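Support case: user asked for a sample of complex input and structure output to validate their parser. Sending the pair below.
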Amino acid sequence: MNRTSRVTLNPAFLQEIKEDHRNFYRLLAAARHHLGRWGSYWRDRTPRAMVDLLERVRDRLAMHFALEEAYGYFEDPVWTEPQISIAAQRLRDEHRLLYGELHLLTERATKVLYRETSALRIPGICADFERFCQHFEDHELRESDLMVRALYEDVGVGD
Ligand SMILES: [Fe+2]
């Protein structure tokens, strides 16, 4: 049994956090819809609304990840399958990357708002937000898959 700093998931808590965060997923879906449209109709819009939306999503994302890390993951389990531990570590590390991605997008939009960069950048910001959403979705899918695997390991069904 290897006890060197391992990470694993707490599937029950992680699932509960995801269920409690339906409002966050709804906000994300709305932002995706609006920014998808802004990518084409940005000339009719004010960048203020785009910045507000990105800031709201970014702040809720920070809360979502903070709760997942506090209750959905834990370090140094008595034992966990090494493959689960490696995948859990990777997924937890992705939180910082995903938050950073969205934070940079928000900063880029803020620069447009304060006319530090051209409004011509808006379609690119919207396209990158869509890319961020795909990265986040992919992360959520892999996290859900790992939750199931960790659950099976917990009840001794896994091989
Ligand atoms: Fe996560």
